Amino acid sequence: MQDFNTGYWQLLKDPYRENWSDKFYEVLGYSKEDVKPNFDYFISKLIHEEDVALFRDNFLNYRNNNTNFKQHIKIRNKNGQYLFFRCATNDELPVNIKAGIQFLFFFETNIEPDRTIKKDNFYYKETAQMTSTGSWYVDFQKRKSYWDFETYRILEYPEDYKPSLKDSADYYAEDHRQLAADCFFNCAMMGTPFNTEIKMVTANKREFWARAIGKPIYNEGKEIIGIRGVFQDIDEIKRKEISLQKSVDIIAAQNSRLFNFAHIVSHNLRSHTSNLSLLVQLIEDIEDPKEKEGLIKEVKTISDNLNTTIEHLNEVVTIQTNNKQERVVVYFNEALKLVVNGISHMISNSNCQIRPDFTEVEQIDYIPAYLESILLNLITNAIKYKHPERDPVIVIKTYNENGNAYLKVSDNGRGIDLTLFKDKVFGMYKTFHYNKDAVGIGLFMTKNQVESLDGTITVDSEVNEGTTFTIKF
């Protein structure tokens, strides 16, 4: 037993036994022969009946889930009188006792809890309102739900509304209903408390973020008969957090693009200029006119390559400067027609079939040139890297999911080995096949165009089966 100058219980591994301190017996006037040091005896013989339910819930949650608590309770002493105590667990003490096991401390107090109910209620209402925290209780036996005043206010329901288990799904956003169901199921069936961020819905269909906390309620037979909890409106904080994360992601993407620029400038451009300097020096040192003529042709080749690299850089810069252009309504079918007309010769020579389906999403607010460029790059890639044993088939489809528009472009080509190239698919000057005309700029440009308008692009591919690009607008 620990040496604390107050009454306490030391919880043992045996769930039906506790060690009660000498001070605990002394304050109540009992000897160790008078009472049995276990939870069931305490509940049935010593604690006031008004405090049984709450203490039982708190104690079992502390025992089973290490959920700390503090509570005022009345305990009967040997003379039959009820003494008022304040009980608290390890982490609810004003000091750190540095204990590796569970304790429950009992501090005697002369203040009757009933005398402070009005004052406590006042502070409770003030705290609930200032922190936007609502309380709720679900009674499994009566199959009823109970809300406090702040819950009605936050969820924007009238005071005469009767919360119901049948309507519980309506209190949560559609994409978070499964999370809510999982939390309640695990709490109700296994006694697992929950503490999570979840998106809720008010009576007026306003979605907001909340911090939801719940714990199981036990009966005398230690069976779970309900769930009690609170939720706090954290919408403003959460949206700022999401906005901050988006900013972090944008900065990360910009850093990635900056790295590509640095690579091109330090490696590709320097390579071109170094070759030019070397050739110029050789031309100066060679007197044979025919040899000089051959080297001059090499200068032209290097100059063309240098010009192409600079054009690529200019295209990337243009994407970043044009992303503030005003978006207009663009029809997918019209954008595809423009692309197909522009590469009709390439399509017919490869016997390519393009199968579009824009029935679910026909149009989008976008920059027309970007959508055309995205379609052009993905279609020409599919044709360039077609499978040698079959004609290319490209399926282009739009669809809606969770309020977002998507574009999916699938082909039956050679595919990409994602185990080798997954992190390089959208890199600049990255190629994955041996086509002589492969440059490695198209997917890099596509990714930049999509992301400059706050979208995302992902790839799924199997070697010799084909590749699917999915764009979320």
From TrEMBL:
Give one Pfam family. PAS_3
Residue span, Histidine kinase domain? 264-473
Q: Which residues cross the membrane?
A: none
EC identifiers of the protein: 2.7.13.3
Domain PAC: from-to ranges:
194-246
Record domain PAS: where: 20-66
For this UniProt record, give its keywords in alphabetical order, as a comma-separated list. Kinase, Phosphoprotein, Transferase
Q: What reactions does this protein catalyze?
A: ATP + protein L-histidine = ADP + protein N-phospho-L-histidine
Q: Highest taxon of the source? A: Bacteria
Q: Which InterPro entries match?
A: HATPase_C_sf (IPR036890), HATPase_dom (IPR003594), His_kinase_dom (IPR005467), PAC (IPR001610), PAS (IPR000014), PAS-assoc_C (IPR000700), PAS-like_dom_sf (IPR035965), PAS_fold_3 (IPR013655)
Enzyme superclass (EC): transferase
**Protein name per the record:** histidine kinase
Source organism lineage? Bacteria, Pseudomonadati, Bacteroidota, Flavobacteriia, Flavobacteriales
